[in-house]
Design goal:
- It is a single chain.
- The chain is α+β, with helices and mostly antiparallel strands.
- It has three domains: 137 residues, Probable tRNA modification gtpase trme, domain 1 (Gyrase A, domain 2, 2-Layer Sandwich); 90 residues, 2-Layer Sandwich (Alpha-Beta Plaits); 81 residues, Aminomethyltransferase beta-barrel domains (Elongation Factor Tu (Ef-tu), domain 3, Beta Barrel), CATH 2.40.30.
- The strands form four sheets. Strands 10-11-12-9-3-13 form a six-stranded mixed sheet, sandwiched between helices. A six-stranded antiparallel beta barrel has the order 14-17-16-15-18-19. It has a five-stranded antiparallel sheet with strand order 5-6-7-4-8, with helices on one face.
- Strand 5 and strand 6 form a beta hairpin.
C-alpha cells in the first residue's frame, strides 16, 4: 500500500488532536473537535484550514496568456497581479476538466490552484493541448513550493492584521497581494481575499519552511477571537451551505459549467475559440437541459450523493451533495435536475435508501454569502 502524502502542517494538526483520513492519497484532518463545532466557529468567529494539498501548476513563457485563454473559459486578459480569477477548464463536449483559481505571479507567469485529486489529470490535459514549444510555454507542477492556509470567518481580518502592516481592509474580494511581510517570518507571502466557506476570509501562500510557524502564530494570535483549526468535514458543510460546487459532485466530465450555474465564468465573447466553447454557446442559447439546484427536505432524512430525485415516480435527476445544515438546522442538498423541474418551489421526492421523502427546490445559496 502506497504511503499517504502529508503536508508540511501535518505534525502541527496532529498535536491539535486531529482525526485524519485518506483524502485522495493525502492524510488530512477530517475534524479536530466535532464537525458542528468547527462549522459554527467558522460562521461566528474564525477557522483555520490547511489546504496545502490543493494542486499548484505553474504556466510560464511568452505565450502563456494565449495558451491559457485557449484552455479556460474566463477571460484571462482581464487578470492582473492584484487579482485572482476563478475559471473552468472544459472538454470539447463542454464537460468539466476542473474548476480552478488562477494567479498572475509575474509577467508571463501564472499559478493555477486546482483540485488535489485532479492535479495529475490537469497537468496531462494541459500538456496534451499545448501546441507551443518549450521556449514559448512551460508547464510545471509546483504544489510543494507552497504551504496554503485558509483563514475564514468574520474575525479573519482582525486576526491576520496582527501579523502584517499591510492594510488588509484595502484588499477586496478576489483581490490578492504579493510580497506580504509577516512579523517574525523570513520569507514574504501572497494572500488573496478568497475562500470556500461563504464567509469573509483569506488564503495565504507561503514558503514551506515558514508554514508551521505561520499555523502556530495564527492559532496563538487568534485565541481572543475564538479561532479554531478546521477539518475537511466542516469544510464540506460550509461550502454546501454556500452553494459552492465540488468537483466530482456538482462538476464532472459529464456536467458543464452552464449546468452548474457557473455562467459568470464562461466568457463566450472573449475572442478566443477555447476548448468547449461550441457546446457552451449552444447551452447558453437554448438553455441547458439539466441544472444544479438547491433542495430542502420537508420530511426527515438526509439526501446523499447519488440519491434519485423523483416526480410522480419518474426519476428527474439525482442528489450531488447533501448534509444536515448546522447553521439552518435543516437537511439540505444540491441536485442535478431536468431543467423543466428546476423552478424554485417545485415539490419533489428524494429516494433515501428504502424511503421516498418529500423535498422542495429552493434557491442557492442556502446561506447568504
Amino acid at each position: 500500500m502506497e504511503k499517504l502524502k502529508q503536508t508540511v502542517i501535518y505534525p502541527e494538526y496532529k498535536q491539535n488532536g486531529a482525526r485524519t483520513i485518506d483524502f485522495e492519497g493525502w492524510e488530512l484532518p477530517v475534524r479536530f473537535s466535532t464537525i458542528n463545532d468547527e462549522h459554527e466557529a467558522t460562521r461566528l468567529r474564525a477557522g483555520l484550514f490547511d489546504v496545502s494539498h490543493m494542486g499548484k501548476i505553474k504556466i510560464s513563457g511568452p505565450k502563456s496568456l494565449e495558451f491559457l485563454q485557449q484552455m479556460t473559459t474566463n477571460d484571462l486578459s482581464k487578470l492582473t497581479q492584484s487579482k485572482a480569477q476563478y475559471t473552468v477548464m472544459c472538454y470539447e463536449n463542454g464537460g468539466t476538466v476542473d474548476d480552478l483559481i488562477i494567479y498572475m505571479v509575474a509577467d508571463f507567469e501564472y499559478v493555477l490552484v486546482v483540485n488535489a485529486a485532479n492535479t495529475i489529470k490537469d497537468y496531462k490535459w494541459l500538456n496534451q493541448n499545448n501546441k507551443y514549444d518549450f521556449q514559448q510555454v512551460q508547464i510545471e507542477i509546483v504544489t510543494h513550493h507552497y504551504v496554503q492556509l485558509a483563514l475564514q470567518g468574520p474575525n479573519a481580518e482582525r486576526i491576520l492584521q496582527k501579523l502584517t502592516k499591510t492594510n488588509l481592509q484595502e484588499l477586496r474580494f478576489f483581490e490578492c497581494k504579493h510580497g506580504i511581510d509577516f512579523l517574525g517570518m523570513g520569507t514574504p507571502a501572497m494572500i488573496s481575499r478568497t475562500g470556500y466557506t461563504g464567509e469573509d476570509g483569506f488564503e495565504i501562500y507561503i514558503h514551506p519552511q515558514e508554514g508551521r510557524n505561520l499555523w502556530k502564530k495564527l492559532l496563538q494570535l487568534g485565541m481572543e477571537e475564538g479561532i479554531q483549526p478546521i477539518g475537511l468535514g466542516a469544510r464540506d458543510t460550509l461550502r454546501l451551505e454556500a452553494g459552492l460546487p465540488l468537483y466530482g459532485q456538482e462538476l464532472s466530465k459529464e456536467i458543464t459549467p452552464m449546468e452548474a450555474n457557473l455562467n459568470f465564468v464562461v466568457k463566450l465573447d472573449k475572442g478566443v475559440d477555447f476548448i468547449g466553447r461550441k457546446t457552451l454557446t449552444e447551452q447558453k442559447m437554448q438553455g441547458p437541459q439539466r441544472k444544479i439546484v438547491g433542495i430542502e427536505m420537508i420530511e426527515k432524512g438526509i439526501p446523499r450523493h447519488g440519491c434519485n430525485v423523483l416526480i410522480d415516480n419518474s426519476i428527474i435527476g439525482y442528489v450531488t451533495s447533501g448534509t444536515h445544515s448546522p447553521t439552518l438546522k435543516k437537511s439540505i442538498g444540491m441536485a442535478l435536475l431536468d431543467s423543466q423541474y428546476s423552478s424554485t418551489g417545485m415539490e419533489v421526492k428524494v429516494q433515501i435508501r428504502n424511503r421516498v421523502c418529500n423535498a422542495i427546490v429552493v434557491p442557492l445559496p442556502f446561506y447568504p454569502i
